[in-house]
Here is the input.
Amino acid sequence: MYATFWALLPPIIAILLALITKEVYSSLFIGIAVGGLLYAGFNPVGALEHIFSEGLIAQLSDAYNVGILVFLVFLGIMVALMNKAGGSAAFGEWASKHIKTRVGAQLATIVLGMLIFIDDYFNCLTVGSVMRPVTDRHQVSRAKLSYLIDSTAAPICIIAPISSWAAAVSAFAPEGTNGLVLFIRAIPSNYYALLTIVMMIVLVVLKIDYGPMALHENNALKGDLFTVSREGAADDEPAASARGKVSDLVLPIVVLIIGCVIGMIYSGGFFEGESFVDAFANSDASVGLVLGSFAALVVTLIWYTVRRVLPFKECMGCLSEGFKAMVPAIMILSLAWTLKGMTDSLGAAEFVAGVVEHSASNLLNLLPAIIFLIACGLSFATGTSWGTFGILIPITLKVFPLESGSPLAIICVSACMAGAVCGDHCSPISDTTIMSSAGAGCDHIVHVSTQIPYSLTAAAVSFVTYLVAGFTGKTVLSLVVGVAVMLIVMYALHFNQKNKTGEGGV
Here is the structure.
């Protein structure tokens, strides 16, 4: 069963079960169990050994993964501190005087998400903690907030030259190629990311909602921000300090951003003589985020203690509160990583590589669109964008070497990146999707089920755009066509919604 379609069966089972049952933990574990049984030839003892020793334990002993979990805990503690100190409430009060409408609250979320482009994990949790009080006041559903966070995480990082994603893509460039230059050249033809941004802004401005999201937004207008689950509700949080000011949220966030940037360039050797760009390209996001978040946590504790906004004992009490708040995300991430380990051990990467290489010779003009679909499927099944880059980008550059001068070389590399982000958006086992749910305080399956129709709309338009690019080889022309098609689709949805409601939407 190695390197066959069977290698993709465990994640497919896990994803389908999660969407059907709305229960993510058992669905992920069943997928893991199927992967272990396939690997061990249905020997239950061998399967258990593989699941735990080479799966769960191996993933949780991986230094990068542990760093991400530590970063999650530190950020969870900071959010608990900011809430307890009254910083989040004070910011919500301040924002309510400057942001007057639901549209304004959503646009502010988008702008903040675009500004925090360093790393997708960092983006999801930071934007969520800052904007949640604002969107709650303007009755924006947690499902919609999750979508806005997720759509300004990976899609922004994948077109930002200074980000952990740029460093990841650069690492997969062939020897002798400047990976950062390759990344920058691919930005204009990263159609899914660019069209997702266009779509998101038009959805907010025209007040368009469809699919399951429409129900959540209608319920939010009636006062129910959750519809399904009240996890993370404001009235479930401990009472905030009356001494809190806007600075009690802004200062920790600013220090967090600066700390994470310094931490990332430190891990890339900036203070050992590397240039800023090279240090970012060589950075270890896991190490950088841990260092930056720890520094921000220490500064936050000192700031609150000096200001006497919180007694030291209450500050220490937030350590366990922040950890507990991140337990669901940590559990889902751990199981998702284990499922990925099962998929890797069954040769999913080799299977997909073979499919791409066999289709390349006969379908050159269709290849950008085909690579986009394959990247979507692989990222959806495995829950990893970066793993998809590592598999498909080297194969693409073998078919279209950069030295050939073919415009399809860069377009196909972009298709790999765009498809990986698209699959990542739709997948319940994607770490970025999990982080977006945690950042918004939204039920994870609710976030997935409400976001998929939006992601598939952007994916369909992107597929058409890659078809145009494959036959014309014109990056800008194809993007103009894609934006035009997206606007037509959005206005069609707007017109349909207006006819149903008799208004401009919710």
